[in-house]
Amino acid sequence: MNGIYNFFNGVGQFLSLFWAAICSLKFFSSSLDKIFSQLFDMGNRTLPVAALISLSIGAVLALQTGIQLSEYGIQDRIGGIVGVSLCTELAPVMAAILMAGRVGSSITAEISTMSVYEEISALKTMDIDPVKYLVLPRFVACLIALPFLVIYMDLIGWLGGSIVSNLNQTISVSFTAFYNDLSQVVTFSDIASGLIKSIFFSITISITSCLVGLTTEGGPREIGTSVTKSVVASFIAILILDYILTRFLILVGLL
Amino acid sequence: MENNINFNNVSKSFSGKVVLDNLSHNFKLNEVHVILGKSGMGKSVLLKMLMGLMTPDAGQILINNKKLDDAKSIDNLKISYVFQFSALLNSLSVIDNITLYLDENNIDSKENRLKKAYKILSDLGVEDSASKIPSDLSGGMRKRVAIARSLMIEPEILLYDEPTAELDQINTRIIAKIINDLKDTTNITQLVVTHDIGFAFAIADTISILDEGVIKISNNPEMIKETNHPLLDPIA
Hints:
The structure holds 2 protein chains of 2 kinds. Chain A is mainly α.
């Protein structure tokens, strides 16, 4: 019973903070410096790892699928399979998981430290709204960063797939054949569906990590607990949301 | 009618534990009022309710006979708070911490904000730390910077939560001097909660003893000494 109460209480707090973040968008222009600073920080934290992950996923996907396809002599269809898999599912989900792990955890750690050491209360005593000062820049930066990260991972993943398809002697598909098939199969709606997912994921990650940080109480020990809680909650929410969004995108004909 | 802060039957409990129990008390404005009490007696809770960081379970807080929120909005009453562990933002330099209130609320020009901030830092003897990060400062300096940040708001009421916590005797004397200087040169009402009895007697116009959720005694320091309250034993 307590678990059900906590779940709905958490959902309520999430929606309330999300709404507060939306309302604070009117301060967008005066928060530009903080938003850019957050964007820069997010880019620094995620781009190198994102490149490594997407290159590896694209390569492994091409290797496993390409060998199977070559048994039927249709390995020249590998470009489309790698292209669609990456941009509709793998890149958005992996980018979101990476963002939750690298950026979300850091947001929670920073804000929960501020909560524990009464820095958030200090902001309130100075008539500074913590949502405007802390949540808005992270919310907007995440909203901008994640779709770009997905496109970045799409491109690098396709590159990884094309390299393996070209170099592996069993598959042996040229770069031109790989990208020809990819361009014929991957549609704008495939890419758009990945970007739509990333927008929902970014809202989930930024609001969850800020919320857990802002509601942290107790001593320094709670900071670690909050970071774990935030990352686990974001992972679970991303996976559940991914299924719901996929169903929805199929329903509206985008997938 | 005399200007005052009036706690009217205020109660507050946490997880069933009563911290403030139907507390009623008048604090005069424009003086240094020290609230003495053992740890965990609700001294900080009292200040946080006055700051608006906590709400009473029952009762009300009036300032000059207006409800706290009305006094803040109608009279533009400014209340500032010096936190027990300073609560400076470690992601900002000292000077950015000091100007934060003015920066975020778009008050005055950048040049004037800095001028004002350096003047206050200089008055408190910490102007050399302006470019440092708060975590690089000693406890005493952090406390002075926290007071400087509170003064930037130009408060009418300044609340101090255990201002000498974790400070040595020299820094305690510096903080006492700052409070006494503010008393002599401004009309700021200063409410200080502490369990440091010597410090309390060094700064107070009035001392109140908070015990078991209510204010048991309140008087000037001389009269308080004569009460022989058990809490004052260490200075006997």
